[in-house]
Amino acid sequence: MNKENEVKRTFKSEVGSARFYPEMEKRDLSECLDEEYEMIDARIVRGYKGKFGISDFALILFREAGSETGFTTLCGGKVVVKKIQQALDEGLLPLYGTITDKGYYDIN
Fold first, then answer.
1. pLDDT the model gives residue 48
2. Cα–Cα distance between 49 and 55 in angstroms, integer?
3. Whole-number pLDDT of residue 15
4. How do the domains of the chain map onto residue ranges?
5. Which residues contact 22 (CB under 8 A, 6 or more apart)?
6. What are phi and psi of 43, to 5 degrees?
7. Residue 13's pLDDT band (boundaries 50, 70, 90)?
């Protein structure tokens, strides 16, 4: 496929024109590690072409225990994306979870 025929993929084309909870606070994943949160919602973006190549990642809506408000973050860890996709496919959300980084991202 040559560059002229290549379709440019964007967040809008892949995720849709509606933003992922724009009213919520945004947090960097590093601020969320090793803390348990309730995952309220998530969306998987597949095949996103970024500066480090093509990847998949999860947009996540978390809520702290006892809080009515949430925040969003994203994680591109393959294990996390796989587990969140399974939870979405099986209709398991909301779930409590802790994202860890022990050489790779995981969620327990």
1. 82
2. 7
3. 55
4. 22-107
5. none
6. -140, 135
7. low
